[in-house]
Design a protein that fits this description.
This protein has about 600 residues and is an alpha/beta fold. The chain has 3 domains: about 110 residues, Phosphohistidine domain (Glucose Oxidase, domain 1, 3-Layer(bba) Sandwich), CATH 3.50.30.10; about 110 residues, Enzyme I, Chain A, domain 2; about 325 residues, Phosphoenolpyruvate-binding domains (TIM Barrel). Helix content is about 45%, strand content about 15%. It has an 8-stranded mixed sheet. Strands 9-10-11-12-13-14-15-16 form an 8-stranded parallel beta barrel. Helix 7 links the parallel strand 5 and strand 6. The protein is globular, with a radius of gyration of 25 Å. The chain starts with a strand and ends in a 17-residue tail after the last helix. The relative contact order is 0.09.
Length: about 600
């Protein structure tokens, strides 16, 4: 028996035989060409791109109606085909290096990989995987080979083990034939993982070299809760996991029940629980898991998948679709948080020595007013189709909000003059993720309708710790006394001015922290949709007054270690045994 640990990408337990996928490797034929052959080779590349476009359009048309909403990921791949990062670079390399299309495509991918290595934002880095899928399709057309996943030889339900699965492959997986999957590449926020969660297929990803550690026909267990894979389990392990699988199915039924119940404590404290999302494809997951709206809709994706900057109308239709599909629930759209280490097509961002502290988010938008205007106009136009709210990231002080509100007023006057409807009373909010925003939260509360605490950046900037730097990431501590005091200060400042204060950082969806956030008096928690049911369950078992008293005790402690120990003790003492039947680790409690 061999046991491996990797990334839990989609929850659930799968027990079955391995179906090992060894896709044909596309050998890159490298040829030097003469100047007279350049145009012909460029045309050959263009025709391959057209062929892949047709392939993807055909795949979209073949999607069953029940998963049609996921087609936008494939549509984004079509846009990537025309993105200058890939398309123009390849054409240029054919001419400059005088090489055939296959070789130029490989060189282009090498350059793109180098570019992405400088990016610290996890979500942006993972879009490299999507570019890789698109490039491989073009390479396959140039080589005259097939890329589509062939599952025709599967006779009984199996567990797929592969180097990687593209979103197109995942969308064409039949749940009757595939119990779960394991891949060597991927991450929890990759499109393939998002689709696996939406389709309800247990998955573990990022498991290095797994294709060489198992054989087709071998028994395998995929634990999509812990990110664990067991090859050829012994009888005791098999028996334990079968029991665990039954427990999980019962737990899921309870979760579905909990997801539709109000997030209200035993003493009547009502808190809103919403979802963070960035893709239209996530809407079914958001609704199924009982979100009371979207507390954070990230808008960077459209800027990264288009050959040029998206137009106002493209943005308008995208926002309108999200707002209409989630109506009557509110949707909070965060304006563009890009620049610095975040890449976007059509933008020529200068390289910065320290991009995390550079020209990004609201700073970038206030400099690039044409880009910012287009997005604000699109959001305002979409605001008449539902309950839409505006959220501005990385605000550090009042001076930025004065500029933003002035610009917003000008745009409203323009739309009014053009006869285009919009909600003139649209609510505007500020992301609290910079220490100066916390320290001046009493001032900022007078300039806005709500606060949303972005703990990911707030903790990073407050503790001077780069979350993706392996040397210091272990010091990233949400329960640091300084972090807790900043959260409390922000909540108190907002409430003093009569505005709501929410949280949309990862901290909001961690079970251990929920009682603490309740005790802080937050009005809203926004998180990954998958975390909503368990969060609601904890809230419904909580007494807010007791949590508030507990927070006062925590605020008097002088070390993160002491805070964490007390938090764990409080959690174990105050939540019913059924919270532990699925093992605290499976519920996301890393202790």
């Amino acid at each position: 028996m061999d046991t491996f640990k990797a990334i839990a990408a989609s929850p659930g337990i799968a027990i079955g035989q391995v179906f090992l996928l060894n896709p044909k490797r596309i050998k890159t034929v490298k040829r030097r060409i003469g100047q007279e052959q350049v145009q012909k080779e460029q045309e050959r590349f263009r025709q391959a791109v057209l062929a892949v476009e047709e392939q993807l359009k055909k795949l979209i048309s073949e999607l069953p109606e029940e998963i049609k909403e996921h087609s936008n990921i494939l549509k984004s791949h079509i846009l990537m085909l025309r993105d200058k990062m890939v398309h123009d670079r390849c054409l240029r390399l054919i001419e400059k290096r005088q090489v055939n299309a296959e070789w130029a495509l490989e060189l282009a991918m090498d350059e793109i990989q180098q570019l992405f290595r400088t990016v610290k934002d996890t979500y942006i880095r993972e879009r490299l995987e999507d570019i890789g899928f698109v490039v491989n399709r073009v390479k396959a057309v140039l080589a005259g080979t097939e890329t589509r996943l062939d599952l025709s030889s599967i006779e009984e339900p199996v567990i797929i083990v592969a180097r990687n699965l593209s979103p197109a492959d995942t969308l064409h997986i039949s749940k009757e034939k595939v119990l779960g999957f394991v891949t060597e590449l991927g991450s929890r926020t990759s499109h393939t993982a998002i689709l696996a969660r939406s389709l309800g297929i247990p998955a573990v990803v990022g498991l290095d070299d797994i294709t060489s550690k198992c054989l087709s026909g071998e028994m395998m267990i995929v634990d999509g809760l812990k990110g664990q894979v067991v090859v050829e389990p012994d009888e005791q392990t098999l028996s334990d996991y079968r029991l665990k699988h039954e427990k999980y199915l019962k737990y899921r039924l309870e979760v579905i029940h909990n997801s539709n119940l109000p997030a209200e404590t035993t003493d009547g404290y009502r808190i809103k629980v919403k979802a963070n999302m960035e893709l239209v494809e996530e809407i079914p997951i958001v609704i199924q898991h009982g979100a009371e709206g979207v507390g954070l809709f990230r808008t960077e994706f459209l800027y990264m998948t288009s050959r040029t900057l998206p137009t106002e109308d493209q943005l308008f239709f995208a926002y309108k679709e999200v707002v209409e599909r989630l109506k009557p629930y509110p949707v909070t759209i965060r304006t563009l948080d890009i620049g610095g280490d975040k890449l976007a097509s059509g933008l020529n961002c200068e390289e910065e020595i320290n991009p995390a502290l550079g020209l990004r988010a609201i700073r970038f938008c206030l400099r690039e007013k044409g880009l910012f205007r287009a997005q604000l106009r699109a959001i305002l136009r979409a605001s008449v189709f539902g309950d839409l709210r505006l959220l501005f990231p990385m605000v550090s002080g009042k001076h930025e909000m004065v500029q933003v509100k002035r610009l917003l007023g000008q745009i409203m006057d323009e739309l009014k003059a053009e006869g285009k409807p919009f909600n003139k009373d649209i609510k505007i909010g500020i992301m609290i993720e910079v220490p100066t925003a916390v320290l001046t939260s009493d001032i900022l509360a007078k300039e806005t309708d709500f606060f949303s605490i972005g703990t990911n950046d707030l903790i990073q900037y407050s503790l001077a710790i780069d979350r993706v730097n392996e040397a210091v990431c272990h010091l990233y501590e949400p329960l640091h006394p300084g972090v807790l005091r900043m959260i409390k200060m922000t909540v108190d400042s907002g409430h003093k001015e009569g505005i709501e204060v929410g949280m949309c950082g990862e901290m909001a969806g961690e079970p251990l922290y929920v009682p603490i956030l309740l005790g802080m008096g937050l009005d809203e928690l926004s998180m990954n949709a998958m975390a909503i049911p368990k969060t609601k369950k904890i809230i419904r078992q909580s007494n807010q007054e007791e949590c508030a008293d507990f927070v006062q005790e925590l605020l008097s402690l002088d070390s993160a270690r002491m805070v964490r120990e007390k938090a764990i003790e409080f959690f174990r003492q105050n939540y019913s045994p059924d919270m532990e039947t699925m093992d605290l680790l499976e519920l996301g409690l890393n202790i």
